Amino acid sequence: MAVDWSTEWFTSTVWIIGVTIASAVGCGLIGWLLARSTVWGRQFARLTVPYFTPRGPEGWQPLVTALLLLMLTIFLVRLNVLLSYSNNGLLTALQQLDTSAFTRYLVIFGVLATIYVVITLVEFYVQQRLVIKWWSWLTDHIVDDWLGDTAYHRGRFTRAPVDNPDQRIQEDIATFPASTVTLAAGAISALVSLVSFTIILWQLSGPLALLGVEIPRAMTFVAYLFVIVATVIAFRIGRPLIRLNFLNELFRASFRYALIRLRDSSESIAFHRGEPIEQATLSTRFSAVIGNAWALVFRNLKFIGFNLSVSQAAVVVPYVIQAPRYFSGAITLGDLTQTATAFGQVSDSLSFFRNAYDNFASYRAVLIRLNGLLDADADARALPSVVLEPSDDLEVRNLTVRLPDDQVLVDDLDLHLTPGDSLFVTGRSGTGKTTLLRSLADLWPYANGTVRRPLGDDALFLSQQPYVPLGDLRTALAYPGPAGDIDDARAVAVLRQVQLPHLVDRLDEVADWTRRLSPGEQQRLGFARLLLVRPRVAFLDEATAALDEGMEHTLYTLLREELPDTVIISVGHRSTLNRFHTDRLELLGEGRWQVAALSH
């Protein structure tokens, strides 16, 4: 096929701009329809629209980048078309022994090939830039949603708690933008290539007599029929891959969680000599991973084997059909080669969804898992909670605390503590002492009533095993505030006050302090935080259980001296704590309770 190269450059420019605009409008319209009519469309829109809307965090930048990527993708398709004409001219010139034509087409090929390389590199950069910035935003967005309103904690109490949120945040979020951009660019390239090379194939196709019937432009019909039939069969073979890929992520995350839990609890396991039980647990979870892996292998053997067979058949089909026309002189060698190229492009374009079906299966699993995490966060926020209001005092009105089975632990509790007051919560094990503190912190969803108290940084909770964050000791000491707010002199003084003088020279040492510090040292570190933060209300849940009575006496005395106006609520079992509190709340079981003043 002869080409007027003098006008082809202008035509190509207009074509690229026109197809880019049409593709952008078409993608937007299709996306809008899918988001309104399908579940997975709504799931996709939930993760994309907030970022790409002009009112999003980065304004027009993501949308402009996506449009630029779309234009570059279409540009590469057009270059492939021009390269097919260039190759046709080269081979035809060789066949006709035309030296000048061969030289001209060689120069054209060099120009086109150079442009192709440059545009491919630019496209790669633009694509990766879009992926990385989207990945960064999506991670911040989902982590904020997970941490917001303590959904990460309250999600444990929903009807269907989400599995492995850490894996979903770390792996699935990274996969989603990359897969979205890759699959979208591949689908658009396939559709534009399909139209472009179908035109070429139509122009080069001749009639074919079959069973006495002459089929005009037979090559085009053969290409479409060949690939459509293959695609339908491939989809039926590959359909189980969606479920298998979802289970693959689930089983691997479950196995990894068991390994992490074993590492974090290594001392307790070693004390109990629990290695055989742990080995059995790991073996059971890993067996599920391996079983699903084999299921994936056998399904992929069928799927990949069929696709490879179809792809190999697609190589020879155009030559078989066009060979009679070539031998009769109706077409040149260049025409024959360009026909094979066009047939291959049409076949590959039509086969894109067939060949990428396993990628779409994995992508669908990622989409389900990320939306599942967002749904779980929404369910966690929808759980009932106490009415929490700001106040300088601690005032509790009509607070009822239940277990998930609706058993009442504390019924209709009323309390009022003013600055400087302190309350000692006692009772038999199982009467709900710790659960009451969780309710006062709005962390227990099976409670209702009104709690008025200081909020934010003015309230601090110390559990029996204080949380020690990753990082240096200064960070652990300042938590949950920024480490930079604590100067060395204040940090050293507080560590000495809580009997941790051996740590004063290690403030900037980065270590796993949960393992370095004994339970008693961690509890003393918790008291150091109290002295630094100086909250207006402090909740202590057996915060001295790992300490002897002498150290407990020292720390509570220090607390009352340093924070005389702080409201303190302590849960404990030792009667020695009575002397440090003004009132006692005793939980009697079955929802009953009584409050009494303590005399000293």
Q: For the CA atoms, what is the radius of gyration?
A: 35 Å
Helix content: 55-70%
Main pleated sheet = 6 strands, mixed
> Would you tell me which CATH topology of the largest domain applies?
ABC transporter transmembrane region fold
Fourth-tier CATH superfamily name of the largest domain: ABC transporter type 1, transmembrane domain
Number of domains: 2
Structural class assignment:
alpha/beta
How many strand elements?
Answer: 12
Major β-sheet strand ordering: 8-9-10-6-11-12
Average the pLDDT over all residues and give the rounded result.
Answer: 83
Under the CATH scheme, which class of the largest domain?
Mainly Alpha
End-to-end separation in angstroms reads 106 Å
Q: Uncertain regions: pLDDT < 50 for 5+ in a row?
A: none
Structure, explained:
This protein is α/β, with parallel strands linked by helices and 600 residues long. It has 2 domains: 5-382, ABC transporter transmembrane region fold (Up-down Bundle); 387-597, Rossmann fold (3-Layer(aba) Sandwich). It has 19 helices and 12 strands. The strands form 3 sheets. The chain has a 6-stranded mixed sheet, sandwiched between helices. A hairpin with a 2-residue loop joins strand 1 (208-210) and strand 2 (213-215). Helix 3 (61-95) runs antiparallel to helix 11 (333-350). The longest helix has 53 residues, at 275-327. The relative contact order is 0.08.
